[in-house]
Design goal:
Layout (H helix, E strand, L loop, with lengths): L2 E10 L4 E10 L2 E7 L5 E12 L3 E6 L9 H11 L2 E6 L11 H14 L3 E6 L10 H7 L3 E5 L13 H14 L2 E5 L3 H13 L6 H5 L3 H18 L2 E4 L5 H12 L3 E4 L1 E2 L1 H4 L2 H7 L12 H12 L6 E2 L7 H4 L21
Parallel strand pairs: 1-4, 5-6, 6-7, 7-8, 8-9, 9-10, 10-11, 12-13
Antiparallel strand pairs: 1-2, 2-3
């Protein structure tokens, strides 16, 4: 078989490194992998002595939460430069989240016209309902659904009440698709922020203090109980706590379809980094203690984490700058960044 491209190097495979290997590509698709003398090809990319990795999948990105769909082009270009060849994009877009098949079709057109990498798209529902749109979204091609137990914006990123969420889970279960949940308890966070402001504590560390571990685990328990009740595959969109993965495992043993992901920041950043980075370190859930970071690593080593993502959610610089009130800064990190030499 004639190849359009052969890539030479030490190939990183799922179970080993194939030294002196080659990858044969034809028609834009990998057709063969081998070792030793490579076959003929129209073009050869010679990286002998270097590792050749497969493309990465970033399972959690917000390309359009700040700029709208024009953000897809830049985010996907950055992803490609860093070795990410598939982006899984969340539905909380400006000015309209992906709540029905018509909006999804419009977004797919933009993705096909502007994205530099493959993209999979989530769907969601409105705060005031929209459960009836779930089947249409699934038929139109969403890969998963995303709901939240905490409200950032009543239209773009709403909190879904328990009654509506249970109904949504039942409909999503019929599709066989996963539903990811932003897992923070609204009442705990709002009460803690109000108390902090009342005492004049708006310094960076208070972002972590007003979103304590309990606000995550309370949300986890609620959504996992509904998973057990409805049969839906319910997934923690990001756990900063090892306990989140323990809870998912516990509910799986009881017959539920439950899972969770970690984000890169929860494997390498701590509360001390939040103090130094100020608004630029603000994300939800927040950074945790160094001890908790070690516990999350242990969960990863034990196979309890479904996958690791970035939760890439960039904001204009002015939105991240800290001017004495951490609660005024936007929540989200630039998790997807191009590699630099």
């Amino acid at each position: 078989m004639a190849f359009d491209l052969v890539v030479r190097g030490d190939l990183v495979l799922g179970d080993r490194v194939l030294e002196g290997g080659w990858v044969g590509v034809a028609g834009g698709v990998i057709q063969a992998i081998g070792q030793g003398a490579p076959p003929a090809a129209a073009d050869v990319a010679d990286h002998r002595g270097m590792l050749v990795f497969p493309g990465l999948v970033d399972g959690h990105m917000h390309t359009s939460s700040a700029l709208g769909w024009p953000g897809i082009e830049g985010a996907s270009r950055t992803a490609a430069a860093g070795g990410v060849t598939t982006c899984v994009d969340m539905p909380y877009d400006v000015p309209r989240p992906v709540t029905d098949a018509k909006i999804l079709a419009e977004k797919i057109q933009v993705v096909n016209a502007t994205s530099h990498v493959d993209m999979a798209l989530y769907g969601t529902i409105r705060k005031d309902g929209g459960v009836e749109e779930i089947a249409g979204l699934a038929a139109a091609g969403v890969c998963s659904f995303k709901l939240s137990t905490y409200e950032y914006d009543a239209v773009r990123f709403p909190r879904i009440d328990h009654t509506t969420m249970e109904a949504a889970f039942r409909e999503i279960a019929k599709t066989g698709l996963m539903v990811g949940i932003h897992n923070e308890d609204q009442e705990i966070v709002e009460g803690a922020i109000a108390a902090a402001k009342a005492t004049g504590r708006t310094d960076p560390i208070m972002h972590a203090r007003t979103r304590p571990p309990l606000c995550e685990t309370m949300a986890d328990l609620a959504i996992f109980e509904m998973a057990l009740e409805t049969g839906a595959h319910v997934h923690i969109a990001h756990s900063s706590l090892a306990r989140g993965f323990d809870l998912a495992e516990m509910f799986r043993r009881q017959g539920a379809k439950t899972s969770g992901e970690a984000c890169i920041q929860y494997l390498c950043m701590t509360e001390e980094d939040l103090v130094g980075l100020q608004g630029f370190g603000k994300c939800n859930p927040p950074f945790r203690t160094a001890d908790e970071v070690e516990r999350v690593w242990q969960s990863l080593a034990e196979g309890k984490i479904a996958y690791v993502s970035t939760d890439h959610a960039p904001w204009p610089r002015a939105k991240k700058e800290y001017h004495g009130d951490i609660f005024a800064c936007g929540a989200g990190l630039r998790g997807c960044r191009a590699s630099r030499r």
